[in-house]
Amino acid sequence: MNKNKPKLIIEVAKKTGIALKDIDLYGKYTAKVSLSAIKAERIKNSKYILTTAITPSPFGEGKTLTTIGASMALNKIGKKSSCCIRQPSMGPLLGIKGGGSGGGMSQVIPAEDFNLHMTGDSHAISIAHNLLSSFLDNHLYRGNSLGIDIKRINWKRTIDLNDIALRTIKVGIGLKCKDLPRISGFDITAASEVMAVVSLSKNLSDLKKKLGNIVVGYTKDGRAITAKDLCASGVMAAILKNALRPNLMQTNEYTPCFVHTGPFANISHGNNSILADMLALSYTDYVITESGFGADCGAEKFFNIKCRYSGLTPSAVIIVCTIRGLKIHSKKFEIIPGKKIAGSFYKENINAVLAGCDNLKKQIENIKLFNLPVIVSINKFKTDTEKEIETVREAAKSFGAYSAIKTDFWKSGSEGGIKLAEAILDTTSNKPQFKQLYSSSLPIHKKIETICKKIYGASKVKFATNAMNKIDSLQKTKWSKLPICMVKTHLSLSCDSTLKGVPDDFTVNIKDVVPFCGAGFISVLCSNIKTMPALPKIPRGTKIDITPDGEIKGL
Fold first, then answer.
1. Fewer C-beta within 10 Å: the chain N or C terminus?
2. pLDDT digits 0-9 by tens, 75-92
3. Which domains are assigned to the chain?
């Protein structure tokens, strides 16, 4: 649908104000930006807006579309704006989800560069991660002088693909030593702690320090063994030197887009890098950044993890919703992936829309816990009726949203979001008194309970004995002050993906707790989330191809 050809990225950089000495070209349309280009004194004067959504539906709500479109619309009305998004993982791209570059008249271009490899950051992260794995197994093979207990090793390998066969593997086959062979496995790169480290680092020194703090396992007496203990953090940082630098691309209306890192929001913190946001804030007055999945997942982690480390203060939040997503949350329709949807689903149904608005209400309440103003963006589809859209608009305002705007970025690009851009100007005219959900000094189990009860709406939190024992041990260490990163399904406010809308009277079962000391958070597992996804029966990658003249199709 988009017919605009990309400009040379040099032109985009020049118009943004980035000096040519601060960029390295990766082809014609992508560039790496130097960290020295960050202007700390300029950042505090820019507006910082987060895009999030209701609890996701199988259709998707259009967060990336809206993030890109809102930045273009702000430029359209004469403001200087940019957007920041994550680079999609190759696994979901080739599996079931498809590309993550937006769509229609609101997307990052060239889409094939964006979706496939780009500047190789994910591969660099995989290599750095796997180098630590190889150092670890080499240490075991050479006599294990650190006394690592192979039953307490928590460091796997990683690859940026969905590969179910790699979930569990045996390494060291054929080697003759007491600690090898051993059972291990692979995670997808987006779930790697190294990905989270790159996302949350503020400079090279910070990166090296965080990498050194990664815990790969423990001795039999419980002493943590780190990447620094294995003398791996220096070389890992060297491998990641260029990957730490954000990437500059452009939208189809030539708005600058900073693309960097891609942690999952149901497993990791689900946000692009601190450095990308800092660069965008250094050169534009309005920065639209995006978090993964619904406001209970990526947005909660944006505030409690990313903002805690960046020191950046959000100005406002856009919550994206769709009529069809709200209908699903009404629980009046059963949508089964791969099966035909009943025609009645697409007919006007005000009662279903109103029932589904309960989920929107809860997500608005979640954002207001952080004392931030909310703008609701109703992403329009051709099957929506004006009466349904007006119903959502009125409901959102009654729930406390500053405003609720119909947007049509897919069809009309920036023109489809002029009213949203104007609402952003109005909403950010006053500086909000942003606050965290919990204090760093709060006991670990209380932080977890606060998230579960206030954000998810749980009535009870139950800790497995193993999880509680780990929490008690962590509470006695300096790690007790780390923020919490919940691992749960993104498809429900609860931990049961089948419960739509706003579930009530449910319990969150805490199954395990793992300190991600390098990234700087405590990972809390309350769902059986696989850190290595599987491909579907017919992978989306089977529909991607290349023509004889080099044009990539199917993205």
1. N
2. 999 999 999 999 988 877
3. 9-119+243-334+341-427 (3.40.50.300), 121-235 (3.30.1510.10), 444-525 (3.10.410.10)
